[in-house]
């Protein structure tokens, strides 16, 4: 089918499709496969672009879309600009829009302030290319969902193609080519360039730290200051106070509750933080896919190049007063899975894999997986494929997660077994350093920024 026929078919059948079974639906297949193929034939250099379409994950999306990214310009739909087809929720037509990612804006500023920043960004983009004067500033998707409505204010310019008056293929192709030219010419400075790179940090040998010392020596403060160096402290730091009554991994990672009859997973701040670290990896543009090996079978693997790791910040989880409860008991799952982390390097290319902390059997035992997905922050359409893989292979330890436990040995705490000591990198905060008058003028020492290890074994 031609581009015009496909857009008409998808828009015209969308409302009815949403009331039918999602799995294997022809409309979803047209969007994900046929429309991508049709657009690729119109692109001047198809290999320069990455096309992705979404009709939903497990359930129908309110607003289906197809994005066109040039990886040299935009690495993720989370931030930056990119051309995108947006279908109206009521099936009355489709927009071709120069959209920009809202996830990073909302993460930094919150939804209300993000909309103001979006207005500024729209004005900036339109001021860079006067060809956008012929493109509408407003997008009306008639959506009732928060995600669908966010697409409306995340547009620098758009053209609407009504279902009952769809333009011919020449017009559709001409508009797309013009928008791709605008996309290539608009050069926006992003905050990604100022993000601190891990290549400038000291890579530690283990992702699990024990900070030992008496009260007042700055153990917890040390972790906070490390997280602040990321310039995204609120996202990359989680402080959890260990309770004396913790005795099993469910205290750390959550559990299944059947109080209301149906199985519901009760998450914890720690599990949500681990999921956030996973999303940071996905948002960075690294490949997350299922790979099969002879010795381990199929598992979820992260892959990329060495310089791509500079975009992935360390996420610091601080377990305050870690040994108020028996570490070997509540931390058992983490300590076991920690040993399964595996980095493999071929030149500057790497793969990383790890066994699951949250097992697929546990996820699939939950009655409402969509509720769990939302609780873990994977509800965005950009995480459709990732969530499907997590349901099948589980949620492991992300490589950018650093766990630091503060330790104070007294009559209220527990000792550590060799199992814990073996897996940890220990720091002693046992000494107070007196003030040196000369250090106020020319410091004799400087702080070191730490980051996650990129090896799992010695060669």
From TrEMBL:
Domain Type IV methyl-directed restriction enzyme EcoKMcrB subunit DNA-binding: 10-186
A Pfam family recorded for this sequence: MrcB_N
Record InterPro entries: McrB_DNA-bd, P-loop_NTPase
Record-given protein name: Type IV methyl-directed restriction enzyme EcoKMcrB subunit DNA-binding domain-containing protein
Source organism per UniProt: marine sediment metagenome
Lineage summary: unclassified sequences, metagenomes, ecological metagenomes
């Amino acid at each position: 089918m031609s581009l015009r026929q496909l857009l008409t078919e998808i828009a015209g059948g969308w409302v009815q499709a949403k009331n039918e079974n999602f799995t294997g639906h022809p409309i979803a297949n047209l969007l994900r496969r046929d429309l991508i193929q049709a657009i690729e034939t119109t692109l001047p250099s198809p290999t320069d672009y990455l096309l992705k379409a979404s009709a939903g994950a497990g359930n129908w999306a309110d607003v289906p879309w197809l994005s066109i990214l040039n990886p040299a310009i935009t690495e993720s739909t989370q931030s930056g600009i990119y051309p995108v087809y947006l279908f109206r929720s009521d099936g009355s037509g489709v927009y071709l829009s120069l959209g920009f990612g809202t996830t990073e804006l909302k993460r930094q500023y919150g939804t209300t302030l993000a909309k103001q920043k979006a207005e500024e960004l729209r004005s900036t983009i339109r001021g860079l290319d006067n060809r956008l004067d012929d493109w509408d500033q407003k997008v009306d998707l008639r959506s009732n969902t928060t995600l669908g409505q966010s697409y409306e204010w995340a547009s620098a310019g758009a053209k609407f193609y009504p279902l009952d008056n769809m333009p011919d293929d020449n017009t559709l192709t001409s508009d797309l080519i013009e928008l791709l030219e605008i996309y290539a010419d608009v050069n926006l400075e992003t905050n990604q360039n100022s993000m601190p790179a891990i290549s400038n940090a000291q890579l530690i040998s283990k992702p699990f730290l024990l900070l030992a010392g008496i009260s007042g020596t700055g153990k917890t403060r040390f972790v906070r200051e490390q997280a602040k160096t990321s310039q995204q402290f609120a996202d990359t730091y989680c402080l959890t106070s260990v309770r004396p009554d913790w005795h099993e991994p469910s205290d750390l990672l959550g559990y299944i509750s059947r109080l209301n009859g149906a199985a519901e997973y009760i998450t914890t701040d720690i599990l949500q933080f681990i999921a956030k670290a996973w999303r940071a990896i996905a948002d960075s543009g690294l490949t997350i896919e299922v790979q099969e090996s002879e010795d381990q079978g199929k598992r979820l693997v992260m892959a990329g190049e060495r310089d791509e790791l500079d975009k992935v910040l360390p996420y610091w989880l601080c377990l305050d007063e870690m040994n108020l409860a028996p570490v070997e008991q509540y931390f058992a799952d983490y300590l076991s899975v920690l040993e399964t982390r595996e980095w493999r390097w071929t030149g500057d290319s790497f793969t990383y894999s790890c066994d699951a902390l949250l097992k697929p059997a546990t996820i699939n035992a939950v009655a409402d997986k969509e509720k769990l997905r939302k609780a873990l922050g994977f509800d965005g359409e950009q995480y459709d494929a990732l969530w499907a893989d997590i349901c099948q292979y589980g949620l492991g330890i992300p490589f950018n997660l650093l766990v630091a436990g503060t330790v104070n040995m007294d009559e209220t705490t527990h000792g550590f077994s060799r199992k814990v000591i073996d897996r940890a990198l220990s720091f002693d905060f046992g000494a107070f350093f007196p003030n040196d008058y000369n250090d106020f003028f020319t410091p004799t020492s400087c702080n070191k920024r730490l980051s996650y290890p990129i090896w799992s074994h010695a060669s």
